[in-house]
Automatic annotation (TrEMBL):
Its EC number is 2.1.2.11. Catalyzes the reversible reaction in which hydroxymethyl group from 5,10-methylenetetrahydrofolate is transferred onto alpha-ketoisovalerate to form ketopantoate. The gene is panB. GO terms for biological process: methylation; pantothenate biosynthetic process. Pathway: Cofactor biosynthesis; (R)-pantothenate biosynthesis; (R)-pantoate from 3-methyl-2-oxobutanoate: step 1/2. Homodecamer; pentamer of dimers. It comes from Methylomonas methanica (strain DSM 25384 / MC09). This is 3-methyl-2-oxobutanoate hydroxymethyltransferase.
Length: 262
């Protein structure tokens, strides 16, 4: 099959077809997700926690991200591959270009994702031909500033700021936006107001697509699964079936349900 492009993802938003996404960090899961029909594979810096065993995403390096991106991009045929820019790798446009180029060239990513409304960096990368996915709401790379992994945008002023940042990120040329841990109502408003696809995680069912950390939905993450995730292994006949169940549940609008939503 032909590899999906950002134009295909935009067309899905326009057609009202939900976009399915999961994280992967290696070739075997990449191929499995691809065969299950997952549209977007995110090489998330969550690998710092679920693969490397750190208690945050901060220790992940650009070399780590390029290595895992290459493992994933080698093995998929159809899925669109997005790779995370790790902590402190995009402080200036020039630094961001140097690091994003490694994810694209060494890593084979089709798009890079960065946290926050860094519109100067986004504009510069897009100008250099590097597609960018924004990420708003809960920003795990800022966990030390926030003081924990908490829902964002509950107060009206904070919600307004997230909406304004989302519009600014689209204006800067981003091609996708991830919204993490925000009230469903705010995510719905942002999704309606943007022309680029919005992919939610803990952001309700009105987003244009959904993403989860693979190991959470396969129930192999130690500790508590976040409220917004779901154990798709519970009723599944194996890993591939769990991924297919997630894919269909998102396409049909059955996931996320109210119990996964803020
Ligand atoms: O790193 C990651 O897995 C992510 C998703 C949770 C959106 O950024
Ligand atoms: Na991430």
């Amino acid at each position: 099959p032909k590899t999906l492009s950002i134009a295909d993802l935009r067309a899905m938003k326009q057609a009202g077809e939900k976009i399915t996404s999961l994280t992967a960090y290696d070739a075997s899961f990449s191929a499995l997700l691809d065969l299950a029909g997952i549209d977007v594979i995110l090489v998330g810096d969550s690998l710092g926690m679920v693969v490397q065993g750190h208690n945050s995403t901060l220790p992940v390096t650009i070399q780590d991200m390029a290595y895992h991106s290459r493992c994933v991009s080698n093995a998929r045929k159809r899925a669109f591959v997005v790779a995370d820019m790790p902590f402190a790798s995009y402080a200036t446009p020039a630094q961001a270009l140097n690091n994003a180029a490694q994810l694209m060239q060494a890593g084979g990513a089709q798009m890079v994702k960065l946290e926050g409304a860094k519109t100067d960096v986004i504009e510069f990368l897009v100008e250099q031909g590097i597609p960018v996915c924004g990420h708003l709401g809960l920003l795990p790379q800022s966990v030390n500033r926030i003081g924990g992994y908490k829902v964002q945008g509950r107060e009206p002023a904070q919600a307004q700021k997230i909406l304004e940042d989302a519009l600014a990120i689209e204006q800067a040329g981003a091609g996708l936006l991830v919204l993490e841990c925000v009230p469903a109502l705010l995510a719905a408003e942002i999704t309606q107001n943007l022309t680029i696809p919005v992919i939610g995680i803990g952001a309700g069912s009105a987003c244009d697509g959904q993403v989860l950390v693979l190991y959470d939905m396969l129930n192999i993450t130690a500790g508590n699964r976040p409220r917004f995730s779901k154990n798709f292994m519970a009723e599944a006949d194996g890993v591939s079936d769990a991924v297919k169940r997630y894919h269909h549940a998102v396409k049909n609008g059955q996931f996320p349900a109210a119990e996964h939503t803020y």
